[in-house]
Each structure stands twice: as structure tokens, then as C-alpha cells.
């Protein structure tokens, strides 16, 4: 059973209906090929579930075969550290990490991850920040705007009932930073309690940050941050 985050029962039922996949008739043409242990299977419906979420392949409401994934906790949370220079320029923090499904090299990305079952977005934000970087993000503030669907082609996330990835901003005093080429870094990692990846975080002017990050969630969060503080 999936738990939508909205409080309206009708909205929750509608969100569930959007994820419903029917049985594919045996004589219907397929756009997708299902291989199990290397052998093609003409299945009517496939469901793969875990604590993380559920993937279903079947007959979509539009009438053709396809698949969709619903994250069990209803979305995720990303944290964007930021600062303002003495001239008022907005600096945005990104973490250099190797991410699954994004190539062999580390990429500049947002700090964050998915909501665990039964967890709120706020709790997920502080937990993910601590797990990924050691960053104490308890003082981060949720940024205004709707939650983001990380991949609308295949992910199920209905922002109208509270699902999706929410963005949080964490303000850092500019005097904690020092120039490092075209970016800024912390003068002393100890300035942020528990931060274990200070060497991998840099704050860039916001335009440069958008240009450097292939992470759609980071870019979306930066846009929300700009709307909130500029």
C-alpha cells in the first residue's frame, strides 16, 4: 500500500489511480520487451517492490504498455547551502560526488535523497544531509514552491497531495568562506558541526552552479532558491 502525503482522502485515491497499471492482453502489441534471466517473457504485468519503492510494467491508462516507478515515501528532499557576498552576489553550494546513473566521474550535485517510508520531508532533509555529508542542516528552511517530480516520464509524484522532491536552503555566513579559484570553500570545516565533506563542497555564483551541475534536482532547487532570496 502506498501512503500519499496529502490529508484529503479523495486526493490520495486520485493519486493512487494515476499509478494503476492494467493487465496487458496477450494479443496486444508491445512497445517494451521484458527479459528475465536473459529470456524474453510476454508478461501481462510485472511488479517489483522493495522498501525503497515499487516499479510496475503493465497496461498504462493511455492504452499502451509502459512502466512507472513510485517511491514509497512519496518523494525526497535536497539541501542547498548558500551565502551572499559583500556585493550581494548569491553563492550556491554543491557537493562533488560520484552518483549512480550519472557516469563514471564525480559530478557537482545537491545534497539529498529520498524520503523513507513513514518519514516526513523535513526529517528526510536533515537525515540525508547528515548521511551524505555530515552537515547539520536542522536550521535549513524549506523553499517556497511545489515539490519536483524528478522524472515525469516514469516517476509517479503528485505535488498536489504533497509528493515529490522538496528543496531546502541553508544560509551560511559569507565570512566563513574563502576564495578558491572561481568558487568559495569553508575556511574551517569545524565552522559547520559534523561536516565531513568540506573538501568536496564548493559555493559557486548561482549561474556557474547551474552550468556545472547535471543534477536536475540541484538545478530545480537553485531556481527555487533564486525565487526566494533574489
TrEMBL record:
<protein>
    <recommendedName>
        <fullName>Nudix hydrolase domain-containing protein</fullName>
    </recommendedName>
</protein>
<feature type="domain" description="Nudix hydrolase">
    <location>
        <begin position="73"/>
        <end position="205"/>
    </location>
</feature>
<dbReference type="Pfam" id="PF00293">
    <property type="entry name" value="NUDIX"/>
</dbReference>
<dbReference type="InterPro" id="IPR000086">
    <property type="entry name" value="NUDIX_hydrolase_dom"/>
</dbReference>
<dbReference type="InterPro" id="IPR015797">
    <property type="entry name" value="NUDIX_hydrolase-like_dom_sf"/>
</dbReference>
Amino acid at each position: 500500500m502506498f501512503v500519499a502525503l496529502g490529508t484529503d482522502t479523495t486526493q490520495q485515491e486520485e493519486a493512487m489511480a494515476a499509478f494503476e497499471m492494467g493487465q496487458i492482453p496477450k494479443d496486444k502489441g508491445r512497445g517494451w520487451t521484458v527479459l528475465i534471466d536473459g529470456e524474453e517473457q510476454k508478461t501481462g504485468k510485472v511488479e517489483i517492490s522493495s522498501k525503497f519503492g515499487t516499479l510496475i510494467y503493465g497496461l498504462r491508462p493511455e492504452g499502451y504498455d509502459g512502466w512507472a516507478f513510485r517511491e514509497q515515501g512519496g518523494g525526497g528532499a535536497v539541501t542547498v547551502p548558500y551565502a551572499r557576498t559583500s556585493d550581494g552576489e548569491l553563492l550556491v553550494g554543491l557537493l562533488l560526488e560520484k552518483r549512480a546513473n550519472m557516469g563514471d566521474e564525480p559530478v557537482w550535485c545537491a545534497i539529498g535523497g529520498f524520503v523513507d517510508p513513514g518519514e516526513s520531508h523535513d526529517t528526510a532533509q536533515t537525515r540525508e544531509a547528515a548521511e551524505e555529508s555530515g552537515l547539520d542542516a536542522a536550521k535549513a528552511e524549506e523553499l517556497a514552491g511545489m515539490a519536483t517530480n524528478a522524472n515525469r516520464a516514469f516517476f509517479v509524484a503528485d505535488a498536489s497531495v504533497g509528493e515529490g522532491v522538496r528543496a531546502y536552503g541553508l544560509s551560511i555566513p559569507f565570512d566563513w568562506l574563502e576564495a578558491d579559484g572561481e568558487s568559495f570553500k569553508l575556511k574551517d570545516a569545524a565552522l559547520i558541526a559534523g561536516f565531513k565533506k568540506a573538501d568536496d563542497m564548493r559555493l559557486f555564483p548561482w549561474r556557474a552552479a547551474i552550468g556545472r551541475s547535471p543534477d536536475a534536482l540541484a538545478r530545480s532547487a537553485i531556481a527555487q532558491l533564486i525565487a526566494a532570496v533574489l
